[in-house]
Amino acid sequence: MLELDGITYRYAGAPRPSMHEVSLTLADGEVVGIVGASEAGKSTLCLVAAGLAPRTVGGSLSGRVLLDGHDAAPLAMHQLAERVGICFANPATQLSRVTATVYEEVAFGPMNLGLPRGEIIDRTGAALEALGVADLAEREPARLSGGQQQLVAVAGLLAMHPQHLVLDEPTAQLDPAGTQLVAEALARLAADGASILIAEQKTDLLAQICTRIVALEAGRIALEGAAADVLADERLTGLGVALPGSVRIRRLAEAASLGSPQRDKLATALATLDAPA
Amino acid sequence: MTDVALESVSYVYPGSGVRALDDVSLRVAGGEGLALVGQNGSGKTTLVRHLNGLLRPSAGRVMLDGADAHRNTVAQLARSIGLVFQDPDQQIFAGSVRAEVEFGPRNLGLRGEQLRVAIEEALEAVGLAANARTNPYDLGGSRRKLLALASVLAMRTPVLVLDEPTTGQDVRGVEVVRRVIDSARAAGRTVIAISHDMEFVASAFERVVVLRAGSVILDGPPSVIFAESSWPELRSTFLEPPLAARLGAQLGFQATPTDDALIRALAQ
Amino acid sequence: MAALVVTLAAIMLSGVVAPLLLIGVAVLLPAAVAGVVRELSRIALLLSLPLAISVVLVNVFFFPAGETVLLRIGPIVATAEGLRFAVEILLRLAAISGAIVLFYLSTRPGDLVIDLEARGVSPRLAFVANASVQTVPTMVERAADIAAAQRARGLDSEGSPWARVRGLLPLVAPVVLGSIAEVEERTMALEARAFTRPGRRTLLWRPADSRGQAVARWLLVAALPLLIGLRAAGWLAWLG
């Protein structure tokens, strides 16, 4: 379990804190989505959850980050890396650039951990399978598409066997094909019981995989609850968050004062499209 | 109003020999609004770089107002074609928002009052008027993207080309981009945008061109491009029609590429 | 290792025949084995061309001890001795650049670094060496993209020298600023993979190092002082 307890965080040199009194729990096996306008604090939350703020990024933190009830503060960055993995939006900067193949790239983390060779091989194989990129094992990481690079990045994190996975807008820079690849992979991980904290603008994606959603505004939690509830909440647009397609269209139908037979037809059509192919 | 056209343009990358554009002919009339869609690697960026001379065709011609553009330098073409790159950090070099926006128009020779007005209007259009003295790197990534947009808007080119303007933007950012496109069109400027966001494309543009492996496979209004008959072509290049189009097809409607079109069809 | 020895050997040998032999044996032969003769010639030529041209010009025309005149262009005289000297230097230059390029072409950067690390060099140091090399092509590409973006905003890259100097800031600043921004992200990504963990890493494999290679290495190292000794004793004059 990953817990943020009353976190207030200010970047070094910033006039105001980027996060105010934020408390959030990510239980094992939960998938929690973070939404909000740009600069509402989504990235900051991800950095704090993964321990990079304040360790690498600097700044001042008050409140506690707890891992399974224990304060994470005394842990060094490399110790945290084994418990919380973090994936960023830019696929290219996450490549180590010192590996010649995807296999070595995914093995990079376990190698750094000094694990025995056999263990590294097991973990790498499993991670490649989990992300569906086993057939890319011999390829050069730099020559993959953005979507593929993101999958490799997540595989590399999984190979560290973290308890929780934090993703900061993983599909922001991907084309629709890449977004689809990553979304499906995440859905599979979630279905297998992974603990995921994911910040995204693409609420359609979150609607697919999240159990809970937290909406941020100016560094504070503005909305929180079951995914379907939050995504249908009236206040979401006011917070700068795009509504999922189905909610948006339903709203428009209501605003246009369509009669119930039409709205029902709409609802049926929506249900048909949402149903698994 | 400036017309741009590609006539049988092919482009082969010198190093890799990859044929990024294959005999592409495209005519964009002055004042049109066109969205260019396609997978990464389909040739979209290569195509738009031909418009301002950053790339020169291996075969074929690029025409600007009926004249071959091959003898114009990039700096000269920048007077007609304003290209906003996808990554704002590829261009930001100034210490303040204002100085960054000033660069383009100044290069084009604007001075004094004209320059001042151009900068102010551009900043206003993207909502950065209050941040004129802010250091660009103190703005978040999405606002830096809007800054890049402003810096090209201020150049007041008759043709505006936007590479992925809504990527990484939240709802408000997308609204800003929409308003900028609408005002530009209202002022008679041609707007060409590369985008992955099919919903945005369907609602903001009257013409959509789909590229696949360097060739145009579809070219028409959203109602045709996102109609069911075009779906196989779209899907062949990993593009999905907007939700409204899919719902409309499900409900037996003809062509409902946008939410509004769907609601109107339902209301009848 | 081989590159180093060849370079030093080339510097020491004089005359025409010796460097030719050296090139033949130490550079072209391994290159043929590795199948990179064409590429090696191309790169080596490109690299040494500027230097080669100036060497030829200076020595052919301005060689002090020249007497046998070949060509006369006004007050400037080309001599046979100068020509011969220039050729000697060119050959040594060819040997050196050939060796260096051979090293570059035949070694995978990753291999070298892993080998160093296995022999006890700190992984972080090895990483820096490796990553720096890999960064160059990326930075070059990025610089080109930046130049494109600024030209699209009317930056005149074809104007007066003064205009070009003014144009430097918009070209250089984004490279620096972008790199700084990128460095922070890269660092975070690396730390997320426990890169900063103290102590040794497990290396999955080591570059193949046969007995033969080890023997060759020692021979090379021994050859150097031998060459020096022989030259000093004047026994290599026949190669001149």
How does this model look, in words?
The complex is a heterotrimer of chains A (277), B (268) and C (240). Chain A has 11 helices and 10 strands. Chain A has helices at 42-50, 52-55, 77-81, 102-112, 117-130, 146-158, 176-191, 203-209, 227-231, 245-255, 260-274; strands at residues 2-10, 19-26, 31-36, 60-67, 70-71, 84-87, 164-168, 195-199, 212-217, 220-226. In chain A, the strands form 2 sheets. A 6-stranded mixed β-sheet of chain A has the order 6-7-8-3-9-10, sandwiched between helices. A 4-stranded antiparallel β-sheet of chain A has the order 2-1-4-5. In chain A, a hairpin with a 2-residue loop joins strand 4 (60-67) and strand 5. In chain A, helix 5 packs across helix 6 (146-158). Chain B has helices spanning 44-51, 74-77, 97-107, 112-126, 141-153, 171-186, 198-204, 222-225, 231-236, 243-250, 259-267; strands at residues 4-12, 19-28, 33-37, 59-64, 67-68, 81-84, 159-163, 190-194, 207-212, 215-220. Chain B is globular, with a radius of gyration of 19 Å. The mean pLDDT of chain B is 93. Helix content of chain C is 72%, strand content 4%. Chain C is built from 9 helices and 2 strands, in the order αααββαααααα. The relative contact order of chain C is 0.12. Chain C has helices at residues 2-12, 17-34, 37-62, 80-106, 109-118, 123-151, 161-166, 168-191, 211-232, and strands spanning 69-73, 76-79. By secondary structure, chain C is mainly alpha-helical. Chains in contact: A-B, A-C, B-C. Chains A and C meet through helix 3, helix 4, helix 5 and helix 6 of A and helix 6 and helix 8 of C.
Number of helices of chain B: 11
The oligomeric state is: heterotrimer
Strand content of chain B: 15-25%
* Helix-strand string of chain B: EEEHEEHEHHHEHEHEEHHHH
Low-confidence stretches of chain B: none
What structural category do the secondary elements of chain A indicate? alpha/beta
What distinguishing features does this structure have?
heterotrimer; B: 268 residues; alpha/beta; 6-stranded mixed beta sheet; 4-stranded antiparallel beta sheet; 11 helices; 10 strands; 38% helix; 22% strand; globular; C: 240 residues; mainly alpha; two-stranded antiparallel ribbon; 2 strands; 72% helix; flat
